[in-house]
Sequence to fold (324 residues):
Amino acid sequence: MQHRGTDLLLANKLLSEGKLVAIPTETVYGLAANGLNETAVAGIFAAKNRPTFDPLILHVASIDQAKSLCTEWPEMADKLARAFWPGPLTLILPKASHVPDLTTSGQPTVGIRIPNNQLTLELLRELPFPLAAPSANPFGYVSPTNAQHVDDQLGERIQYILDDGDCSVGIESTIIAIENNIPKVLRLGGLSLERISEVLGIPVQEQLNQNSNPQAPGQLDQHYSPRCKLIALDQIAAETMDPNASFMFFSKREVVQMPVNTDVEIAHYYLSNSGDLSEAAASLFSTLRKLDKDHRTLVYFEWAPNEGLGRAINDRLKRAAFQP
Ligand code: TXA
Ligand code: MG
Fold:
């Protein structure tokens, strides 16, 4: 059996047997299993080494299927789903009773989205159940944006990786909860708050979750972290910079001169050549992985402009750089 490819029948068969399959989405690759089968879902937590207090998102093929998984479908949810699905938006809604508690980590709500990837959509349309899928990385590490990333770290624990190349968005979905007709963002992501507000006609409240916030258990201070140490350029004085460190910039620029005299060649990484936010988001996680592949131990990085997708990029950078 090929371990990686585009065999939808095989993916369907494995998932129907309660096994794990990695799936491509436009945001990041997911580690999928039958979201209504508790044993299958337990397999996801085990493979990722993920604490069971961190709930999973259910992936569906249609708005009707989404409605079948929750007990309320507010008008705002309908507006957002129609405007942005398939796409990088997860809606948090009161869960239907047949959604297992393990899937939602005991929360009374469930996260749902329609991902925008043709292979995965085709798979979802054929399956009689939704797919629970967290990002397909070991808990706490950088999320995978291509099949090789998944294979590198979880290959031995997954029977099959559905391979559709690089993810187009490259950063996880934006998570929106709707409570009493108030939209709240729980995680910044691949859909900007500006676009969401535009459709709703009102601003989105921010409830960007910390460690201590029981509403969004997955938003830990430290997450998405490569092995190498990351320090923001605005948090280090030029005189104290390590001459052996590398740099990661938001956009392409002239080679940096270190303040200290050195013969060491300084490595530079760029999130986007042209300074484009979408391009930077799409390359963020693979660049973080590259730092580890290149055996960098210390990298000074530049923040993205703090608007649109830049806010989600900075959110990931902040957590990736967090030192306990
Ligand atoms: O783009 C994405 O959302 C990707 C792809 C694979 O779809 N998935 C993803 O899943 O990022 P994961 O498990 O790495 O992050 C999902 C986060 C959880 O950490 C949790 O904070 C939040 O979604 N979440 C899920 N269900 C929730 C709920 N009922 N209430 C609050 N937060 C929830
Ligand atoms: Mg994740």
The first helix runs from residue 8 to 16. The pocket of threonylcarbamoyladenylate (ligand 1) is lined by residues 25, 27-28, 30, 54-57, 88, 90, 92, 104, 107, 109-111, 115, 133-135, 172-173, 175, 186, 215-219 (CB under 6 Å). The first strand starts at residue 4 and ends at 5.
